[in-house]
Amino acid sequence: MASALTAIPPVVVVLAAALAAGLAGSRRRLGHLVGGGVTALVTVWIWVVPEGTHLAGQLFGFDAVFFAVDPFSRVVGLVFAFIATVAVAYSWATGAESKQTAYALTYVGSSLGAVFAGDWLTMVVWWELMAVTSTILVWDYGGKAVRAGFRYAILHGIGGSLVLAAIAWHYVEVGSFLFTASAGMVGTIPQLLAAIGIGVNVGFIGLHAWLPDTYPRPHIAASVFLCVYTTKTGVYAMYRAFPEGHLWIAYMGGAMAVFGAAAALLQNDMRRLLSYHIQSQVGYMVAGVGIGSALAQAGAFGHVFNHILYKSLLFMTAGAVIYQTGEENLKYLGGLARKMPVTCAAFTVAALSIAGFPGFNGFVSKGIVISASHYTFVKGPLVVGDFYTLELLLLIGGVGTFLSFIKFGYYAFLHGPYEGDAVTTAPRPQQAAMLLVAALCVFYGVFDGALFGLLPFDVTDEAVVAHVYHTYTVPHVIEGVALAVIGLAGFAALKKPLSKVGRVPDVDAAYNPLAFYGTRALVHGVTETYAAVDRVAVAAADAAAHVRSDPEMLSRYRANIGGSIFILMVVLGGVLALLGIV
User: Fold this and answer.
1) pLDDT tens per residue across span 217-264
2) Quick one: signal sequence residues (predicted)?
């Protein structure tokens, strides 16, 4: 049985399903049935496959491992495959074509290929394919998605090149691409290149603008896929590069949590708001990786698992609203709780989960990371009472999250009557997909032991972690409720000024024009240089032809060339003699 489970990596099966879905053409039901059925089977497969190195071989002449399973890859691969099943069902329910779902499945497959790779070389191949397939998924929708996808492709191409350079330099230092050959990236330069390159994928501040630029553009079902794989594969790669953590990565994670939540609060486009919150929530994961303790790493990967559940649910609820109303802007919505009660309920569960309210899954995993920031990390330069620097950043990010989703829920579902065309409840297949994921958000929030069983380290065992974690302690519950109260009070105070905020520019407002005009100048410079060289070459060829046709001119040029060579030899001899004297 074990040999059958390890004969091929899951990516092969998922890519085969993508091909089958694409060949289904206009038979949407068949294409989506194949895609959903295969990803469901892959979910079970990843759950039961034994740990270990299963497929070792050669890639481009180097030792490679194509299928390796450990607790880190299993928890990520498990939720990747499961949410793919739900997203395929949601795609069918929203009228997505089989072709789009086929593209999405190639994206899923390449992500699984990266996660289950046992070496850097195999990982970077799938990493680059993940960038290509996600770009195609964005482009498929056409319109504004094409230009956004182009910008996305350029930035991820740069990030991938940095990761590739880091891996090549790492190989020079270590002599192997295998993960088992060293504890993460070796050498200062490889670590710096890897941090920046992977930082593109996880949304480091300054490298993050592709998230809100790209994810609101494509089909609503495509956004459900996109919100899952690129950033979380980045978190996994960050762990592989820095398995013992890094101080500045931890602080970058804390800064991401605050920045993403603050930027989200200023948005009115639903999917743009959700995209900024990907950066914010990934900040908790990056902080956990950066802290580097067993407790923090368990929290980081627990948050990967939980985040994928509630974030995909949030994109599904936003998609359901867009599907029914055709409207993306919160300013033009309102009162949909009465029209779309199931969607409203699913949104409420997802919002409480991402905000970390007691009883929901985000409360569990976010609490682990925050606990690790207090008990297993440095205090940092800012200490307020019993709260340390990184801990404060993560808590402030939590307040911002409550504020953002109170705003989202108020304007979409509660504020006034909806004044658009008649709206009906979401189709039942959409409701089923949303309710399934909502149920899991509650399940893992109430039965935290079920989540603990999936984590790389047992957070309840004092022999494994430096500080044992308990979810439902009185201080932790009070903290979760207090953040909610502060969020409610903050929204009441900020509601009026927030309602006047228009579109707020991000860093891409500077670097997109810079890149455009810089690229145009580069192309112009290269073209003009080529034209100048071409003119010189043509003139030289013309002169040579003219000289050859005139014997007297040819003999004169030969004499001049001979004299020039003689003079050059005399000068060169003098220089050599001078150097010899010196």
Assistant:
1) 999 999 999 999 999 999 999 999 999 999 999 999 999 999 999 999
2) none
Show the tokens assigned to 477.
């519950």
Q: What is the rounded CA–CA span in Å between residue 44 and residue 537?
A: 66
- What is the C-alpha to C-alpha distance for residues 514 and 510, in angstroms, rounded to an integer? 6
C-alpha distances (whole Å) from 359 to each of 274, 354, 518, 559 are: 22, 12, 51, 95
Q: Are 375 and 467 in contact (CB under 8 A)?
A: yes
Where are any strands of DSSP class E within 337-490?
Answer: none
What was the pLDDT predicted at 560? Answer: 57
Residue 102 has pLDDT above 50, yes or no: yes
Backbone angles phi, psi at 68, to 5 degrees: -130, 135
Q: For position 2, what pLDDT does the model report?
A: 59
Q: Are the CB atoms for 164 and 189 separated by under 8 Å?
A: no
Contact 490/498 with Cβ under 8 angstroms? no
Q: What is the predicted pLDDT for the residue at 581?
A: 46
CB 292 within 8 Å of CB 246: yes
- Tokens 């909610």 — which residue? 484
Output the pTM of the full model: 0.89
Alpha-carbon 429 to chain mean position: 28
Helix-strand-coil percent breakdown of the chain, rounded to 5?
Answer: 75, 5, 20
Mean pLDDT along residues 201-209: 96
Q: What is the dihedral of CA 556, 558, 561, 567, to 10 degrees?
A: -80
**Listed residue (289, 279, 243) closest to 390, CA to CA:** 289
pLDDT at residue 551, rounded to an integer: 62
Nearest to 118 by CA among 277, 9, 37, 34: 9
554 residue type, one letter: L
